[in-house]
Design brief:
Layout: H1 2-8, H2 11-36, H3 44-61, H4 66-88, H5 93-112, H6 132-150, H7 153-163, H8 165-170, H9 175-201, H10 211-224, H11 229-245, H12 253-267, H13 278-293
Helix pairs in contact: 2-6, 2-9, 2-10, 2-11, 3-4, 3-5, 3-9, 4-9, 7-9, 10-11
């Protein structure tokens, strides 16, 4: 299958598409935490790195199957997410953001000084197990899971917390418990994304998971529209592919990239698809079609 893909799609384009898919998985997790639940976090890259290093060490040093390593990497990230969330999710707004930012830097420094992670030199010789097929499958599974989750009682409770946490608590919603669950699920997806990332690039360095990576993932969600799954997918795709499309103006591509973000915030402050209700649009189309046919 891999040989067939190589003959159909250029390996470079395959790698770019895989990066888009990997970032979509991570961004969907952050969208659940920040977009749906309304909890601002600047440390998402830390959970990406936890999943990446866990999966990479398990496959490289302990010769575990890739799928098992991937799931364990996600579970390890979720565990740290829950352990962090219990004390930190009592905070709100900027204070929560600063606390998660601090955690992200703690994780980065810890990985830089640990022997098992390769220290500042990084972790190399990771077997390449990520391919376009398994990344695409996990992207589809993540999207379906998020759609089902957001349209469930759990998702409605998270939206209630986002709109007014005090009112949600007064209505009998255990806000702390729901926030911790959302944080754990979002971190699990970040860990899965990190596992794919490690087995695609085959090399990990702690500096690749600094606060800039967290802000990059947050940009994906904000550009697409907070709380919007289609928006998260579109925002991630646009911002991941933009630097590639702008390679012909390599000296100015980051400036153009920044300009695009500024223009978006001016003309579409809610994001590309923020506030767009696709169910309502489909319902209106069906009603119009029924009226025309009737």
């Amino acid at each position: 299958m891999a040989q067939w893909l190589a003959s159909v799609i250029d390996p470079y384009y395959q790698q770019v598409l895989m990066l888009v898919g990997i970032y979509i998985i991570a961004a969907l997790g952050l969208n659940l935490i920040t977009g749906v639940c309304g909890q601002l976090t600047f440390g998402h890259a830390a959970f990406l790195s936890i999943g990446a290093y866990t999966a990479a060490i398990l496959t490289r040093d302990f010769h575990m199957p890739f799928l098992a390593s991937l799931i364990l990497g996600g579970l390890m990230a979720a565990l740290f997410g829950v352990l962090l969330g219990i004390p930190v999710l009592k905070l709100t707004g900027d204070y929560l953001g600063i606390a998660t930012l601090g955690f992200g830097e703690i994780v980065r420094v810890a990985f830089t000084n640990m022997k098992i992670t390769g220290g500042a030199i990084g972790l190399a010789a990771i077997p390449r197990a990520s391919n376009l097929i398994n990344v695409t499958v996990f992207v589809i599974l993540a999207v379906v899971a998020m759609v089902l989750l957001e349209n469930s009682r759990f998702g409605r409770a998270l939206r209630a917390i986002r709109e007014d946490e005090i009112a949600a608590g007064a209505m009998g919603i255990n806000t702390m418990w729901y926030k911790i669950q959302a944080f754990g699920i979002g971190c699990f997806l970040a860990g899965i994304s990190g596992g794919f990332y490690a087995h695609l690039l085959q090399y990990l360095n702690p500096n690749d998971f600094g606060f800039l990576k967290s802000f990059e993932i947050l940009n994906f969600v904000v550009l697409g529209g907070l709380g919007s799954i289609p928006g998260t997918i579109v925002g991630t795709t646009v911002l991941t592919l933009a630097p590639e499309f702008l390679r012909f103006v390599q000296e100015y591509r980051m400036m153009i990239y920044g300009l695009l973000l500024v223009l978006m915030m001016i003309f579409r402050p809610n994001g590309l698809l923020g506030g767009v209700n696709f169910r309502r649009l489909l319902r209106r189309r069906k009603q119009k079609a029924a009226a025309i046919s009737g």
